[in-house]
């Protein structure tokens, strides 16, 4: 009988098969700026809350937690029951972890000061995006941004800790609750995706080092608002049709973004007469997805400038968003510029 000595994998792919999120975070911790364990734990806290929200969404039809909650949030949108549940779950996870000093949530009017002056991070989060799709069983998601506070640890939270440009993010990600649940995130060193294995209760690395195709043949936009678009957007969408691109739009931002990130395509949410500043929120929707897009080789713009360069001036600031395959985003900007001449 031959007995072979164990030879450690030297390929650099030790985390490519059967790797849990927790193990991956530990393997990659040296990539984190100011690595001291807090950011790693914060990502684990978010993953834990995502598991709980996943459980709630999968049983929504059986436990009477679908449908409207009966209140309107700060955005003027009717809250769904799962909006409220998801917000509570993430708030609890982020507050108990100890790494976060403040939270900005779509569901809260003001900044939530956790009274944790030793926390190093600020989290901006949309706990449940696309919640109007819950009752019809279409994919929904969570979007989050993580910033390192600007003020000295131990001091009170100030406006400068909250109002940071997207380029200041130290991590960002989203969770997609669909036919399978996925967590996709970046810490500025590429983008990795993890799929949830229900029977084991773990996220496993399934999409290492995601790279967005340079171009694609999918465009995602709400064409019901076509009569309110500026001419450049109308011209671009008509060009997509002439080139026989496929229209794919679910009304769930995370689902549409995720598909285009993997397959190649562009997501468009332009300004309209009704929403001249756009509708998507800068701090906890556009910034996170723009950071992920750029880390995967894609682009994100408001039509005129890079999303990550916009300096926020208000907590729930809105912005147009065009994000996806790099060549397609550049093409949209070209059409918008030409329409202004």
UniProtKB/TrEMBL annotation:
UniProt-listed Gene3D superfamilies: 3.40.190.80, Fructose-1,6-Bisphosphatase, subunit A, domain 1
Localisation per UniProt entry: Cytoplasm
Cofactor note: Binds 2 magnesium ions per subunit.
Top EC class, one word: hydrolase
Boundaries of every Fructose-1-6-bisphosphatase class 1 C-terminal domain copy: 213-336
HAMAP family to which the protein is assigned, alphabetical: FBPase_class1 (MF_01855)
Residues that bind Mg(2+) 2: 126, 129, 285
SUPFAM superfamilies assigned: Carbohydrate phosphatase (SSF56655)
Cofactor: Mg(2+)
NCBIfam families, per the entry: PRK09293.1-1
GO MF annotation list: fructose 1,6-bisphosphate 1-phosphatase activity
Name the UniProt record assigns to this protein: Fructose-1,6-bisphosphatase class 1
The family this protein is said to belong to: Belongs to the FBPase class 1 family.
PANTHER family hit by this protein: FRUCTOSE-1,6-BISPHOSPHATASE-RELATED, SEDOHEPTULOSE-1,7-BISPHOSPHATASE, CHLOROPLASTIC
Lineage: Bacteria, Pseudomonadati, Bacteroidota, Cytophagia, Cytophagales
Xref: InterPro entries: FBPase_C_dom, FBPase_class-1, FBPase_N, FBPtase
SUBUNIT field: Homotetramer.
Catalyzed reactions per annotation: beta-D-fructose 1,6-bisphosphate + H2O = beta-D-fructose 6-phosphate + phosphate
Binding site for Mg(2+) 1: 106, 126, 128
EC nos: 3.1.3.11
Residues reported in the UniProt entry to bind substrate: 129-132, 222, 249, 267-269, 279
